[in-house]
Amino acid sequence: MAATDSSLVLLEADGIALQVGERWLCCEFSLRLAAGECLVLLGPNGAGKTTLLHTLAGLRAPTVGSVGLGGRPYADWDSLAAARFRGLLPQQQPDHFSASVLQTALIGRHPHLGRWGWESAADVAIAQAALAEVGLAELAGRDILSLSGGERQRVSIATLLTQAPRLFLLDEPTNHLDLHYQVAVLELFARLGREGRGVVMVLHDINLATRFADHVILLDGKGGVLAGTREDVLQADHLSRAFDHPIRRLDVDGRTLFIPD
Amino acid sequence: MPRRTSAGFVIAALMLAGVCALAWALSAGDLTIGPGEVFDALFRGAEGMGADVVRELRLPRAVAVFVCGGLLALAGALMQVLLRNPLADPYVLGVSGGAAVGALAAMLAGLSPWAVDGAAFGGALAAMLVVFGLAHGDGSWTQTRLLLTGVIVAAGCGAAVTLMLSLATDTRLQSMLFWLMGDASGASRPWPALVVLVAGLVAVLPVARDLNVLARGETAASALGVRVRRLRYLLYVLASLLTAAAVTLVGSVGFVGLIVPHLVRFVLGNDQRQLLPAALLAGGTLLTLADTAARTVMAPVQLPVGVLTALIGVPVFLFLLSRNPR
Protein backbone atom coordinates (compact mmCIF):
# COMPACT_ATOMS: atom_id res chain seq x y z
CA MET A 1 0.00 0.00 0.00
CA ALA A 2 2.70 2.46 -1.02
CA ALA A 3 1.78 6.12 -0.91
CA THR A 4 3.12 6.62 -4.41
CA ASP A 5 0.81 4.01 -5.96
CA SER A 6 -1.65 6.30 -7.72
CA SER A 7 -3.62 3.41 -9.21
CA LEU A 8 -4.73 2.27 -5.74
CA VAL A 9 -8.52 2.22 -5.48
CA LEU A 10 -9.31 3.96 -2.19
CA LEU A 11 -13.07 3.68 -2.31
CA GLU A 12 -15.41 1.50 -4.27
CA ALA A 13 -19.21 1.36 -4.27
CA ASP A 14 -20.76 -1.51 -6.13
CA GLY A 15 -24.39 -1.20 -7.22
CA ILE A 16 -25.45 0.75 -4.14
CA ALA A 17 -28.91 2.21 -3.56
CA LEU A 18 -30.11 4.04 -0.45
CA GLN A 19 -33.54 4.03 1.11
CA VAL A 20 -34.56 6.13 4.11
CA GLY A 21 -37.97 5.23 5.46
CA GLU A 22 -40.16 4.73 2.40
CA ARG A 23 -38.14 7.03 0.16
CA TRP A 24 -35.40 5.95 -2.22
CA LEU A 25 -32.64 8.58 -2.14
CA CYS A 26 -30.76 7.15 -5.08
CA CYS A 27 -31.19 4.28 -7.47
CA GLU A 28 -28.40 1.77 -8.09
CA PHE A 29 -25.07 3.14 -9.17
CA SER A 30 -21.39 2.32 -8.78
CA LEU A 31 -18.26 4.37 -8.27
CA ARG A 32 -14.52 3.93 -7.91
CA LEU A 33 -12.20 6.52 -6.48
CA ALA A 34 -8.48 6.13 -7.07
CA ALA A 35 -5.72 7.87 -5.13
CA GLY A 36 -5.29 11.43 -6.31
CA GLU A 37 -8.90 11.88 -7.40
CA CYS A 38 -11.57 14.26 -6.16
CA LEU A 39 -15.26 13.34 -6.22
CA VAL A 40 -17.94 15.96 -5.51
CA LEU A 41 -21.50 15.15 -4.44
CA LEU A 42 -24.01 17.73 -5.62
CA GLY A 43 -27.75 18.01 -5.29
CA PRO A 44 -30.62 20.01 -3.79
CA ASN A 45 -31.44 20.16 -0.06
CA GLY A 46 -32.59 16.85 1.36
CA ALA A 47 -31.45 14.88 -1.69
CA GLY A 48 -29.39 12.54 0.50
CA LYS A 49 -25.86 13.84 0.00
CA THR A 50 -24.94 13.46 3.68
CA THR A 51 -26.56 10.02 3.87
CA LEU A 52 -24.57 8.96 0.83
CA LEU A 53 -21.36 10.38 2.32
CA HIS A 54 -21.95 8.53 5.61
CA THR A 55 -22.59 5.35 3.63
CA LEU A 56 -19.29 5.83 1.80
CA ALA A 57 -17.66 6.40 5.21
CA GLY A 58 -18.99 3.03 6.39
CA LEU A 59 -21.11 4.59 9.14
CA ARG A 60 -24.28 3.04 7.70
CA ALA A 61 -24.83 0.16 5.32
CA PRO A 62 -26.34 0.75 1.87
CA THR A 63 -29.83 -0.67 1.37
CA VAL A 64 -28.59 -2.51 -1.72
CA GLY A 65 -25.04 -3.20 -2.86
CA SER A 66 -21.73 -2.92 -1.03
CA VAL A 67 -19.07 -0.35 -0.20
CA GLY A 68 -15.40 -1.21 -0.02
CA LEU A 69 -12.49 0.74 1.42
CA GLY A 70 -9.00 0.17 0.07
CA GLY A 71 -10.15 -3.00 -1.71
CA ARG A 72 -11.92 -4.62 1.27
CA PRO A 73 -15.55 -4.37 2.44
CA TYR A 74 -16.07 -2.27 5.57
CA ALA A 75 -17.15 -5.37 7.51
CA ASP A 76 -13.56 -6.66 7.25
CA TRP A 77 -12.09 -3.48 8.73
CA ASP A 78 -11.34 -2.95 12.40
CA SER A 79 -12.96 0.38 13.30
CA LEU A 80 -9.66 1.97 14.37
CA ALA A 81 -7.79 0.71 11.29
CA ALA A 82 -10.57 2.16 9.12
CA ALA A 83 -10.18 5.46 10.98
CA ARG A 84 -6.49 5.53 10.03
CA PHE A 85 -7.44 5.02 6.38
CA ARG A 86 -10.45 7.31 5.94
CA GLY A 87 -11.55 10.42 7.84
CA LEU A 88 -14.85 12.27 7.91
CA LEU A 89 -15.55 15.96 8.37
CA PRO A 90 -19.12 16.00 9.73
CA GLN A 91 -21.49 18.80 8.88
CA GLN A 92 -22.07 19.92 12.45
CA GLN A 93 -19.65 20.00 15.33
CA PRO A 94 -21.40 20.18 18.67
CA ASP A 95 -19.14 21.75 21.31
CA HIS A 96 -20.64 21.84 24.79
CA PHE A 97 -17.59 21.74 27.00
CA SER A 98 -14.60 24.00 26.77
CA ALA A 99 -11.31 22.65 25.46
CA SER A 100 -8.33 24.32 23.88
CA VAL A 101 -8.02 24.44 20.09
CA LEU A 102 -4.86 22.30 20.23
CA GLN A 103 -6.49 19.74 22.50
CA THR A 104 -9.43 19.49 20.10
CA ALA A 105 -7.16 19.00 17.09
CA LEU A 106 -5.27 16.28 18.98
CA ILE A 107 -8.47 14.20 19.14
CA GLY A 108 -7.63 13.35 15.53
CA ARG A 109 -4.72 11.23 16.81
CA HIS A 110 -7.13 8.87 18.60
CA PRO A 111 -6.98 6.01 16.04
CA HIS A 112 -3.17 6.19 15.99
CA LEU A 113 -2.72 5.72 19.73
CA GLY A 114 -2.91 2.48 21.69
CA ARG A 115 -5.52 1.83 24.34
CA TRP A 116 -3.38 3.37 27.10
CA GLY A 117 -1.41 5.73 24.87
CA TRP A 118 -1.07 9.44 25.49
CA GLU A 119 -0.30 11.98 22.82
CA SER A 120 3.45 12.31 22.31
CA ALA A 121 5.45 15.38 21.32
CA ALA A 122 5.31 14.05 17.73
CA ASP A 123 1.50 13.98 17.88
CA VAL A 124 1.46 17.56 19.19
CA ALA A 125 3.73 18.59 16.31
CA ILE A 126 1.32 16.99 13.81
CA ALA A 127 -1.62 18.85 15.36
CA GLN A 128 0.28 22.16 15.36
CA ALA A 129 1.19 21.71 11.71
CA ALA A 130 -2.48 20.99 10.91
CA LEU A 131 -3.57 24.14 12.75
CA ALA A 132 -0.99 26.14 10.81
CA GLU A 133 -2.43 24.74 7.53
CA VAL A 134 -5.81 26.31 8.30
CA GLY A 135 -4.39 29.56 9.71
CA LEU A 136 -5.07 28.77 13.37
CA ALA A 137 -1.52 28.46 14.70
CA GLU A 138 -1.98 31.64 16.72
CA LEU A 139 -5.19 30.38 18.33
CA ALA A 140 -3.85 27.01 19.55
CA GLY A 141 -4.35 27.95 23.20
CA ARG A 142 -7.82 29.48 22.81
CA ASP A 143 -11.01 27.91 24.14
CA ILE A 144 -13.09 26.48 21.27
CA LEU A 145 -16.26 27.88 22.85
CA SER A 146 -14.90 31.39 22.28
CA LEU A 147 -14.38 30.89 18.52
CA SER A 148 -16.57 32.04 15.65
CA GLY A 149 -18.41 29.57 13.41
CA GLY A 150 -15.80 29.81 10.66
CA GLU A 151 -12.94 29.33 13.13
CA ARG A 152 -14.66 26.26 14.60
CA GLN A 153 -15.05 24.84 11.12
CA ARG A 154 -11.32 25.30 10.58
CA VAL A 155 -10.63 23.56 13.93
CA SER A 156 -12.68 20.61 12.64
CA ILE A 157 -10.66 20.58 9.42
CA ALA A 158 -7.43 20.69 11.43
CA THR A 159 -8.69 17.76 13.53
CA LEU A 160 -9.25 15.81 10.32
CA LEU A 161 -5.77 16.72 9.02
CA THR A 162 -4.34 15.56 12.36
CA GLN A 163 -6.10 12.24 11.81
CA ALA A 164 -4.05 12.04 8.56
CA PRO A 165 -6.16 9.52 6.61
CA ARG A 166 -5.59 8.40 3.00
CA LEU A 167 -9.17 9.24 2.07
CA PHE A 168 -10.96 12.43 3.11
CA LEU A 169 -14.77 12.50 3.23
CA LEU A 170 -15.92 16.10 3.66
CA ASP A 171 -19.48 17.20 4.38
CA GLU A 172 -19.71 20.80 3.21
CA PRO A 173 -16.13 21.75 4.09
CA THR A 174 -16.79 25.38 3.12
CA ASN A 175 -19.57 25.80 5.71
CA HIS A 176 -19.26 29.08 7.65
CA LEU A 177 -16.04 29.95 5.82
CA ASP A 178 -15.44 33.31 4.16
CA LEU A 179 -14.50 33.44 0.50
CA HIS A 180 -10.77 33.42 1.16
CA TYR A 181 -10.87 30.33 3.36
CA GLN A 182 -13.37 28.55 1.08
CA VAL A 183 -10.81 28.59 -1.71
CA ALA A 184 -7.85 28.07 0.63
CA VAL A 185 -9.40 24.97 2.19
CA LEU A 186 -10.33 23.45 -1.16
CA GLU A 187 -6.83 24.25 -2.51
CA LEU A 188 -5.42 22.49 0.54
CA PHE A 189 -7.39 19.31 -0.17
CA ALA A 190 -6.57 19.55 -3.88
CA ARG A 191 -2.87 19.61 -2.94
CA LEU A 192 -3.33 16.60 -0.63
CA GLY A 193 -5.03 14.89 -3.58
CA ARG A 194 -2.02 15.54 -5.80
CA GLU A 195 0.12 13.96 -3.05
CA GLY A 196 -1.84 10.73 -3.47
CA ARG A 197 -4.79 11.05 -1.10
CA GLY A 198 -8.42 10.80 -2.18
CA VAL A 199 -11.15 13.37 -1.57
CA VAL A 200 -14.95 12.97 -1.60
CA MET A 201 -16.89 16.08 -0.70
CA VAL A 202 -20.39 17.44 -0.52
CA LEU A 203 -20.52 20.96 -1.93
CA HIS A 204 -23.30 23.46 -2.46
CA ASP A 205 -21.44 25.77 -4.76
CA ILE A 206 -21.55 24.44 -8.33
CA ASN A 207 -18.71 26.74 -9.36
CA LEU A 208 -16.38 25.43 -6.65
CA ALA A 209 -17.31 21.93 -7.82
CA THR A 210 -16.44 22.91 -11.40
CA ARG A 211 -13.07 24.10 -10.20
CA PHE A 212 -12.05 21.20 -7.96
CA ALA A 213 -13.91 18.02 -9.01
CA ASP A 214 -12.57 15.22 -11.19
CA HIS A 215 -15.80 13.25 -10.84
CA VAL A 216 -19.28 14.39 -9.88
CA ILE A 217 -22.32 12.59 -8.53
CA LEU A 218 -25.47 14.63 -9.04
CA LEU A 219 -28.52 13.63 -6.97
CA ASP A 220 -31.88 15.07 -7.99
CA GLY A 221 -33.74 14.33 -4.76
CA LYS A 222 -36.23 12.04 -6.53
CA GLY A 223 -34.01 8.98 -6.67
CA GLY A 224 -32.19 9.94 -9.85
CA VAL A 225 -28.39 9.74 -9.89
CA LEU A 226 -26.03 11.03 -12.52
CA ALA A 227 -22.45 9.88 -11.99
CA GLY A 228 -19.52 10.60 -14.25
CA THR A 229 -16.65 12.89 -15.01
CA ARG A 230 -16.91 16.62 -14.34
CA GLU A 231 -17.39 17.39 -18.05
CA ASP A 232 -20.16 14.80 -18.44
CA VAL A 233 -22.21 15.73 -15.38
CA LEU A 234 -21.74 19.47 -15.01
CA GLN A 235 -23.93 20.61 -17.87
CA ALA A 236 -26.57 23.29 -17.70
CA ASP A 237 -29.48 21.01 -18.58
CA HIS A 238 -28.50 18.29 -16.03
CA LEU A 239 -28.07 20.89 -13.31
CA SER A 240 -31.31 22.70 -14.18
CA ARG A 241 -33.22 19.42 -13.91
CA ALA A 242 -31.59 18.32 -10.65
CA PHE A 243 -32.04 21.67 -8.89
CA ASP A 244 -35.44 22.30 -10.48
CA HIS A 245 -34.33 25.79 -11.48
CA PRO A 246 -33.02 27.12 -14.79
CA ILE A 247 -29.22 27.33 -14.67
CA ARG A 248 -27.12 28.94 -17.37
CA ARG A 249 -23.52 28.26 -18.35
CA LEU A 250 -21.05 31.10 -18.94
CA ASP A 251 -17.50 30.80 -20.21
CA VAL A 252 -15.34 33.67 -18.95
CA ASP A 253 -11.58 33.91 -19.46
CA GLY A 254 -11.28 30.18 -20.05
CA ARG A 255 -13.29 29.30 -16.93
CA THR A 256 -16.75 27.81 -16.80
CA LEU A 257 -19.36 29.38 -14.52
CA PHE A 258 -22.91 28.31 -13.79
CA ILE A 259 -25.37 30.94 -12.65
CA PRO A 260 -29.07 30.63 -11.79
CA ASP A 261 -31.42 32.45 -14.15
CA MET B 1 -2.14 19.98 27.59
CA PRO B 2 -2.25 17.34 30.27
CA ARG B 3 0.58 14.86 29.97
CA ARG B 4 0.71 11.46 31.58
CA THR B 5 3.28 12.66 34.12
CA SER B 6 1.48 15.88 35.06
CA ALA B 7 -1.79 13.97 35.32
CA GLY B 8 -0.05 11.52 37.65
CA PHE B 9 1.14 14.42 39.78
CA VAL B 10 -2.37 15.85 40.03
CA ILE B 11 -3.82 12.47 41.01
CA ALA B 12 -1.11 11.98 43.64
CA ALA B 13 -1.85 15.43 45.12
CA LEU B 14 -5.57 14.67 45.27
CA MET B 15 -4.86 11.31 46.93
CA LEU B 16 -2.87 13.12 49.59
CA ALA B 17 -5.76 15.55 50.11
CA GLY B 18 -8.12 12.58 50.43
CA VAL B 19 -5.92 10.94 53.05
CA CYS B 20 -5.79 14.22 55.02
CA ALA B 21 -9.59 14.56 54.86
CA LEU B 22 -10.00 10.97 56.07
CA ALA B 23 -7.51 11.57 58.90
CA TRP B 24 -9.49 14.61 60.02
CA ALA B 25 -12.74 12.61 59.84
CA LEU B 26 -11.22 9.92 62.06
CA SER B 27 -9.81 12.28 64.67
CA ALA B 28 -12.53 14.96 64.96
CA GLY B 29 -15.67 14.60 67.08
CA ASP B 30 -16.92 14.72 70.66
CA LEU B 31 -13.83 12.80 71.60
CA THR B 32 -10.81 14.34 69.88
CA ILE B 33 -8.33 11.62 69.00
CA GLY B 34 -4.84 12.62 67.90
CA PRO B 35 -3.33 11.47 64.60
CA GLY B 36 -0.87 9.17 66.37
CA GLU B 37 -3.67 7.43 68.22
CA VAL B 38 -5.68 7.11 64.98
CA PHE B 39 -2.67 5.50 63.31
CA ASP B 40 -2.21 3.08 66.23
CA ALA B 41 -5.90 2.16 66.15
CA LEU B 42 -5.89 1.48 62.44
CA PHE B 43 -2.57 -0.23 61.86
CA ARG B 44 -1.28 -1.44 65.23
CA GLY B 45 -4.45 -2.88 66.72
CA ALA B 46 -4.36 -0.56 69.73
CA GLU B 47 -6.84 -1.21 72.57
CA GLY B 48 -9.05 1.24 74.47
CA MET B 49 -12.07 3.44 73.95
CA GLY B 50 -10.43 5.85 71.51
CA ALA B 51 -9.30 3.01 69.29
CA ASP B 52 -12.77 1.43 69.37
CA VAL B 53 -14.41 4.74 68.42
CA VAL B 54 -12.03 5.09 65.47
CA ARG B 55 -12.46 1.53 64.25
CA GLU B 56 -16.13 0.85 65.02
CA LEU B 57 -17.79 4.25 64.54
CA ARG B 58 -15.69 6.71 62.60
CA LEU B 59 -13.94 4.48 60.08
CA PRO B 60 -17.10 2.95 58.54
CA ARG B 61 -18.72 6.36 58.34
CA ALA B 62 -15.65 8.11 56.90
CA VAL B 63 -15.19 5.42 54.27
CA ALA B 64 -18.91 5.44 53.45
CA VAL B 65 -18.90 9.19 52.95
CA PHE B 66 -15.68 9.17 50.90
CA VAL B 67 -16.96 6.34 48.70
CA CYS B 68 -20.34 8.04 48.27
CA GLY B 69 -18.69 11.31 47.19
CA GLY B 70 -16.43 9.44 44.76
CA LEU B 71 -19.35 7.47 43.31
CA LEU B 72 -21.47 10.57 42.80
CA ALA B 73 -18.70 12.66 41.26
CA LEU B 74 -17.70 9.86 38.89
CA ALA B 75 -21.33 9.17 37.96
CA GLY B 76 -21.92 12.89 37.38
CA ALA B 77 -18.89 13.20 35.11
CA LEU B 78 -20.07 10.17 33.10
CA MET B 79 -23.64 11.50 32.82
CA GLN B 80 -22.31 14.83 31.53
CA VAL B 81 -20.41 13.00 28.79
CA LEU B 82 -23.30 10.65 28.01
CA LEU B 83 -25.87 13.44 27.70
CA ARG B 84 -23.31 15.96 26.42
CA ASN B 85 -24.99 18.40 28.77
CA PRO B 86 -23.15 20.40 31.43
CA LEU B 87 -26.28 20.45 33.60
CA ALA B 88 -26.52 16.66 33.86
CA ASP B 89 -26.00 15.16 37.31
CA PRO B 90 -26.30 11.56 38.58
CA TYR B 91 -29.95 12.11 39.47
CA VAL B 92 -31.17 13.57 36.20
CA LEU B 93 -32.26 10.21 34.76
CA GLY B 94 -34.38 9.19 37.72
CA VAL B 95 -32.07 6.66 39.39
CA SER B 96 -32.16 8.45 42.74
CA GLY B 97 -35.93 8.95 42.40
CA GLY B 98 -36.37 5.20 42.01
CA ALA B 99 -34.11 4.60 45.00
CA ALA B 100 -36.08 7.09 47.11
CA VAL B 101 -39.39 5.45 46.23
CA GLY B 102 -38.00 2.04 47.19
CA ALA B 103 -36.38 3.22 50.42
CA LEU B 104 -39.35 5.28 51.61
CA ALA B 105 -41.80 2.50 50.82
CA ALA B 106 -39.68 0.15 52.93
CA MET B 107 -39.54 2.71 55.75
CA LEU B 108 -43.28 3.27 55.54
CA ALA B 109 -43.76 -0.48 55.90
CA GLY B 110 -41.49 -0.40 58.97
CA LEU B 111 -38.85 -2.74 57.51
CA SER B 112 -35.32 -3.17 58.88
CA PRO B 113 -32.41 -0.96 57.71
CA TRP B 114 -31.07 -3.87 55.64
CA ALA B 115 -34.39 -4.11 53.81
CA VAL B 116 -34.43 -0.34 53.29
CA ASP B 117 -30.99 -0.56 51.62
CA GLY B 118 -32.18 -3.44 49.47
CA ALA B 119 -35.36 -1.62 48.49
CA ALA B 120 -33.38 1.53 47.61
CA PHE B 121 -31.00 -0.40 45.37
CA GLY B 122 -33.89 -2.31 43.79
CA GLY B 123 -35.80 0.92 43.16
CA ALA B 124 -32.75 2.50 41.54
CA LEU B 125 -32.26 -0.50 39.23
CA ALA B 126 -35.98 -0.49 38.37
CA ALA B 127 -35.84 3.20 37.42
CA MET B 128 -32.70 2.56 35.33
CA LEU B 129 -34.41 -0.28 33.42
CA VAL B 130 -37.66 1.66 32.93
CA VAL B 131 -35.85 4.71 31.53
CA PHE B 132 -33.65 2.55 29.33
CA GLY B 133 -36.61 0.56 28.01
CA LEU B 134 -38.72 3.61 27.26
CA ALA B 135 -35.92 5.70 25.74
CA HIS B 136 -34.65 2.77 23.70
CA GLY B 137 -38.01 1.28 22.77
CA ASP B 138 -37.73 1.57 19.00
CA GLY B 139 -34.01 0.94 18.73
CA SER B 140 -33.08 4.56 18.25
CA TRP B 141 -31.72 6.47 21.18
CA THR B 142 -31.04 10.13 21.18
CA GLN B 143 -29.80 12.35 23.95
CA THR B 144 -33.00 14.36 24.00
CA ARG B 145 -35.22 11.31 24.23
CA LEU B 146 -33.12 9.76 26.98
CA LEU B 147 -33.05 13.03 28.91
CA LEU B 148 -36.79 13.65 28.60
CA THR B 149 -37.65 10.08 29.60
CA GLY B 150 -35.34 10.29 32.61
CA VAL B 151 -36.68 13.66 33.73
CA ILE B 152 -40.29 12.46 33.47
CA VAL B 153 -39.58 9.25 35.40
CA ALA B 154 -37.78 11.33 38.04
CA ALA B 155 -40.80 13.63 38.28
CA GLY B 156 -43.09 10.63 38.73
CA CYS B 157 -40.84 9.31 41.50
CA GLY B 158 -40.89 12.76 43.13
CA ALA B 159 -44.68 12.67 43.23
CA ALA B 160 -44.63 9.18 44.78
CA VAL B 161 -42.12 10.38 47.40
CA THR B 162 -44.31 13.35 48.32
CA LEU B 163 -47.31 11.05 48.62
CA MET B 164 -45.45 8.72 50.97
CA LEU B 165 -44.18 11.62 53.08
CA SER B 166 -47.72 12.89 53.52
CA LEU B 167 -48.87 9.42 54.63
CA ALA B 168 -46.02 8.89 57.10
CA THR B 169 -46.37 9.15 60.87
CA ASP B 170 -44.33 11.84 62.62
CA THR B 171 -41.80 9.40 64.04
CA ARG B 172 -41.03 7.92 60.65
CA LEU B 173 -41.18 11.27 58.85
CA GLN B 174 -37.96 12.45 60.54
CA SER B 175 -35.90 9.49 59.35
CA MET B 176 -37.48 9.64 55.88
CA LEU B 177 -36.53 13.29 55.50
CA PHE B 178 -33.00 12.56 56.67
CA TRP B 179 -32.74 9.72 54.16
CA LEU B 180 -33.81 12.09 51.38
CA MET B 181 -31.26 14.75 52.36
CA GLY B 182 -28.47 12.23 52.69
CA ASP B 183 -27.66 10.78 56.09
CA ALA B 184 -24.34 9.14 56.74
CA SER B 185 -24.91 8.34 60.43
CA GLY B 186 -26.43 4.96 59.63
CA ALA B 187 -23.89 4.01 57.00
CA SER B 188 -22.02 1.17 58.66
CA ARG B 189 -21.40 -1.15 55.69
CA PRO B 190 -19.43 0.84 53.10
CA TRP B 191 -17.38 -2.04 51.68
CA PRO B 192 -19.71 -3.30 48.89
CA ALA B 193 -20.00 0.28 47.59
CA LEU B 194 -16.20 0.62 47.68
CA VAL B 195 -15.97 -2.45 45.45
CA VAL B 196 -18.51 -0.87 43.06
CA LEU B 197 -16.46 2.34 43.00
CA VAL B 198 -13.18 0.60 42.22
CA ALA B 199 -14.85 -1.64 39.62
CA GLY B 200 -16.46 1.39 37.99
CA LEU B 201 -13.15 3.21 37.70
CA VAL B 202 -11.43 0.11 36.34
CA ALA B 203 -14.20 -0.30 33.75
CA VAL B 204 -14.12 3.31 32.57
CA LEU B 205 -10.40 4.14 32.51
CA PRO B 206 -9.65 2.00 29.40
CA VAL B 207 -12.27 3.97 27.42
CA ALA B 208 -11.45 7.39 28.89
CA ARG B 209 -9.91 8.65 25.63
CA ASP B 210 -12.93 7.34 23.70
CA LEU B 211 -15.01 9.64 25.92
CA ASN B 212 -12.87 12.60 24.84
CA VAL B 213 -13.64 11.68 21.24
CA LEU B 214 -17.36 11.27 21.98
CA ALA B 215 -17.44 14.92 23.05
CA ARG B 216 -16.94 15.79 19.34
CA GLY B 217 -20.32 14.29 18.51
CA GLU B 218 -21.44 10.80 17.61
CA THR B 219 -20.77 11.00 13.88
CA ALA B 220 -17.25 12.32 14.35
CA ALA B 221 -16.58 9.74 17.07
CA SER B 222 -17.76 6.85 14.88
CA ALA B 223 -15.56 8.07 12.04
CA LEU B 224 -12.61 8.18 14.47
CA GLY B 225 -13.10 4.50 15.26
CA VAL B 226 -15.10 4.72 18.50
CA ARG B 227 -17.84 2.08 18.90
CA VAL B 228 -20.37 4.70 19.89
CA ARG B 229 -23.40 2.53 20.60
CA ARG B 230 -21.50 0.12 22.84
CA LEU B 231 -19.77 2.97 24.62
CA ARG B 232 -23.06 4.71 25.38
CA TYR B 233 -24.59 1.54 26.83
CA LEU B 234 -21.54 1.14 29.04
CA LEU B 235 -21.77 4.77 30.19
CA TYR B 236 -25.47 4.51 30.95
CA VAL B 237 -25.28 1.27 32.90
CA LEU B 238 -22.13 2.31 34.75
CA ALA B 239 -23.36 5.78 35.73
CA SER B 240 -26.66 4.30 36.90
CA LEU B 241 -25.01 1.57 38.98
CA LEU B 242 -22.58 4.02 40.58
CA THR B 243 -25.48 6.33 41.46
CA ALA B 244 -27.56 3.45 42.80
CA ALA B 245 -24.68 2.35 45.04
CA ALA B 246 -24.14 5.90 46.34
CA VAL B 247 -27.80 6.57 47.05
CA THR B 248 -28.23 3.22 48.76
CA LEU B 249 -25.20 3.90 50.96
CA VAL B 250 -25.87 7.46 52.13
CA GLY B 251 -28.99 8.81 50.39
CA SER B 252 -29.53 11.51 47.77
CA VAL B 253 -26.69 13.86 48.64
CA GLY B 254 -27.04 16.87 46.39
CA PHE B 255 -24.52 18.96 44.45
CA VAL B 256 -21.50 16.64 44.59
CA GLY B 257 -22.35 14.92 41.31
CA LEU B 258 -23.01 18.19 39.50
CA ILE B 259 -20.40 20.49 40.99
CA VAL B 260 -17.32 18.33 41.47
CA PRO B 261 -16.89 17.38 37.78
CA HIS B 262 -17.17 21.07 36.90
CA LEU B 263 -14.71 22.11 39.61
CA VAL B 264 -12.20 19.59 38.31
CA ARG B 265 -12.88 20.66 34.71
CA PHE B 266 -12.28 24.33 35.56
CA VAL B 267 -8.92 23.55 37.10
CA LEU B 268 -7.63 20.64 35.00
CA GLY B 269 -9.50 20.79 31.69
CA ASN B 270 -11.82 18.26 30.09
CA ASP B 271 -9.46 15.37 29.36
CA GLN B 272 -11.44 12.41 30.74
CA ARG B 273 -8.29 10.37 31.41
CA GLN B 274 -7.42 12.90 34.09
CA LEU B 275 -10.90 14.20 34.88
CA LEU B 276 -12.49 10.88 35.89
CA PRO B 277 -9.98 9.78 38.56
CA ALA B 278 -9.55 13.38 39.73
CA ALA B 279 -13.32 13.87 40.07
CA LEU B 280 -13.58 10.63 42.03
CA LEU B 281 -10.90 11.73 44.51
CA ALA B 282 -12.16 15.32 44.74
CA GLY B 283 -15.75 14.14 45.28
CA GLY B 284 -14.70 11.77 48.04
CA THR B 285 -12.55 14.43 49.69
CA LEU B 286 -15.23 17.12 49.50
CA LEU B 287 -17.95 14.90 50.94
CA THR B 288 -15.65 13.67 53.73
CA LEU B 289 -14.84 17.26 54.70
CA ALA B 290 -18.52 18.25 54.50
CA ASP B 291 -19.66 15.30 56.59
CA THR B 292 -17.02 15.84 59.26
CA ALA B 293 -18.00 19.51 59.43
CA ALA B 294 -21.69 18.54 59.51
CA ARG B 295 -21.26 16.43 62.62
CA THR B 296 -18.83 18.70 64.49
CA VAL B 297 -19.59 22.41 63.89
CA MET B 298 -22.93 22.38 65.74
CA ALA B 299 -22.32 19.30 67.88
CA PRO B 300 -24.22 17.59 69.34
CA VAL B 301 -26.63 18.60 66.54
CA GLN B 302 -25.83 16.73 63.30
CA LEU B 303 -26.56 18.69 60.14
CA PRO B 304 -27.60 16.89 56.93
CA VAL B 305 -24.42 16.49 54.90
CA GLY B 306 -26.19 17.59 51.68
CA VAL B 307 -26.68 21.05 53.18
CA LEU B 308 -22.95 21.37 53.89
CA THR B 309 -21.91 20.22 50.40
CA ALA B 310 -24.12 22.94 48.96
CA LEU B 311 -22.78 25.56 51.38
CA ILE B 312 -19.18 24.66 50.47
CA GLY B 313 -19.71 23.79 46.82
CA VAL B 314 -21.85 26.66 45.59
CA PRO B 315 -19.50 29.56 46.51
CA VAL B 316 -16.43 27.67 45.23
CA PHE B 317 -18.26 26.89 42.01
CA LEU B 318 -19.40 30.49 41.49
CA PHE B 319 -15.89 31.78 42.21
CA LEU B 320 -14.33 29.48 39.63
CA LEU B 321 -17.08 30.25 37.11
CA SER B 322 -16.44 33.98 37.41
CA ARG B 323 -12.71 33.41 37.02
CA ASN B 324 -13.25 31.60 33.69
CA PRO B 325 -14.93 34.19 31.47
CA ARG B 326 -15.98 32.98 28.05
Structure description:
The complex is a heterodimer of chains A (261) and B (326). Chain A is α/β, with parallel strands linked by helices. Chain A has a single domain, classed as 3-Layer(aba) Sandwich (Rossmann fold), CATH 3.40.50.300. Chain A contains 9 helices and 12 strands. In chain A, the strands form 3 sheets. Chain A has a 6-stranded mixed β-sheet, with helices on both faces. A 4-stranded antiparallel β-sheet of chain A has the order 2-1-4-5, with helices on one face. In chain A, strands 11-12 form a two-stranded antiparallel ribbon. In chain A, helix 4 packs across helix 5. Chain A is globular. Chain B is mainly alpha-helical. Chain B has one domain: ABC transporter involved in vitamin B12 uptake, BtuC, CATH 1.10.3470. Chain B contains 14 helices and no strands. In chain B, helix 1 packs antiparallel against helix 3, helix 5 runs antiparallel to helix 11 and helix 12 runs parallel beside helix 14. The longest helix of chain B is centred in the first third of the chain and has 34 residues. Chain B is globular. In chain B, 49% of the residues are buried. The mean pLDDT of chain B is 88. At the A-B interface, helix 2, strand 6, helix 3 and helix 5 of A face helix 9 and helix 10 of B.
